[in-house]
# Entry
Amino acid sequence: MADVLTARAAANPRRLAQRKKRRLAVVFVLPALLLLGALVVYPVVFSVGRSFFDAGGDRFVGAGNYAAIIHDPATLKAIRNSTIWVVVAPLLLTGLGLMLAVLTEKVRWATAFKLVLFLPMAVSFLAAGIIFRLAYEQNPDRGVLNAAVVGVHDAFADPAAYPTARAREGHGLTGRAGGPYSTGETVRPGRSVSLGFVGVAPDTLPAGTKAAAGAAAGAATAADAIAGAVYLDFAPGGAGTPGTVDPGEKGLPGMTVEAVRDGRVAATATTADDGSFRLTGLADGEYAVRLPAANFAAPYQGVNWLSPALVTPAIIAAYLWVWTGFAMVLIGAGLAAIPRDALEAARMDGATEGQIFRRITVPLLAPVLTVVFVTLVINVMKVFDLVYIIAPGPVQEEANVLATRMWLVSFGGGNDQGLGSALSVVLLLLVVPAMVFNIRRFRRSGA
# Structure
């Protein structure tokens, strides 16, 4: 009996010490728990409850807001776009990160290369969105991507020389803006025509342009030819007579001119530096002199990156620019932990680099690749800034994801916080499984 009392007396101080430690731990943890409850738990609980009420929060609607999600076309587009993001962006990022991590091992300046690729992670999504909104500008003079596209296009296809030119009205030419233009009256071989145009700034004329005076003076000497001149029907100071070639007026070189009969092109010529042309080899008959629309085609403006069809891929490309460095660094860390003796043994056995990559590197990196992929899935589900900043107003609905749709419905003009809360709950339910999966993997790796 005495031994039992002695053991209990010895155990009491230990219990008291453990209780003190627990109380002390609670004191230190309590502020964090209060913050967690105020910033995470309370908003989640409030949003779940708010999702069962109408826009004003006065009338209980049950699952009405969740039913509205299914029947709202704009919300269904947001769900479709979110699905595209979840499927495409993490896969591309994981693949790019793996490829770059493997390649940087073979580069002398690997550290500098990784630093350059990782730098976009230091840029906020807001700043990245502004950068890419400017890069995607349709105007080639402002958008760097379209400037490059237009430069490549114009290197292989000559742009029209006179996109702004239009025929002088009431002086022999008929047609609509942008061409083609044809003579209102037919012309027989052995005659000449003067084709006047306006709408061309004198300082935009090609180098080497000469005065058009006398370019069409007199009839063509050959009986099988039609001669003439295409000229800028505007003299300095506004002098001269419209419809005639006056001194000081310039020719329009490089114009394609056709002689057309019965809907077929009988002859083609290109205007010289003074705008003169000669259509030869014509049989006797009546011809219309035509200037094809290619002479007046608008300059190529590049790709409309922010059109409804391309806006989502364009925003995903901006997201890849920001997060590729993250995937590369994490996968590179896993790559560095792979035992080199396994790789060397495979090489000694005659395995090619491709076989080593597929059968050894990728399987050993599977845990790291899974963590990177799931982390990116969680991040993609919450993407908001890039979509909101890059997508212009007219195509905002085509680019929306669940996060942007939730904000627009709640605060961006919709003022329906019941439906917005329901969208936030749906988004939470979609993110939680990926978070749980990631946490379990971390616990297993730390076990």
